[in-house]
Design brief:
Elements lengths: L2 H13 L20 E14 L30 E4 L8 H10 L2 E11 L2 E2 L6 E2 L10 E9 L3 E11 L1 E10 L6 E4 L3 E11 L3 H4 L1
Length: 202
Amino acid sequence: MKQGFMVALRALLGALPVMLWAPVPASAAAAAAPGASGLYGVEIIIFRAANPGADEAWDANVPGRGFGNTANKGGAVPSITRILSASDYHMNSLESALRSSGAWRPIAHAAWIQTAANWGTHTGFSLSDVGINVPGLSGSVYLERATYIHLGFDVQYQAGSTYTLRDMRSVKYNDRQYFDHPGFGIIAVVTPIKRGDALATQ
């Protein structure tokens, strides 16, 4: 994306608060926390630039990052325990701000509760599994656990050409993460669910 878009987006992200599911401190980056249930809340917004510049390489094939580790193959298969409804989203204000900015157009918003795979397993869920069914948008989302929690996307967006975003990284709990590509972007938050939290049992 253009540098001006990046600066404006980061300013927008920093200006908006985010409410989370029974959060542990935002500084925590470990995969497990005292009182954790083994469940994680994941919320994502996928968006594209409304008016890309003529000099923007929208069809650039950006190399994937973070998918090379295979040290912990095997383990339990992750599962989705609940797809959250729009009334449970915590980034609605951010989606509205993106939409009203005129610079970006949200194309998908979803949230769900899941267990995590072992780090390096690369066993994820398709976008349709988490409730995203948007023409031209396909791919998978991965949540993997080792010493740290890792979030990754292998997502394709087709709008004339096919653009691919393939990136996995360690993330801090409750911290907005921005996954960027010249053609589109994803904003995501991962939150550990505490034992006894209503979202874990509904």
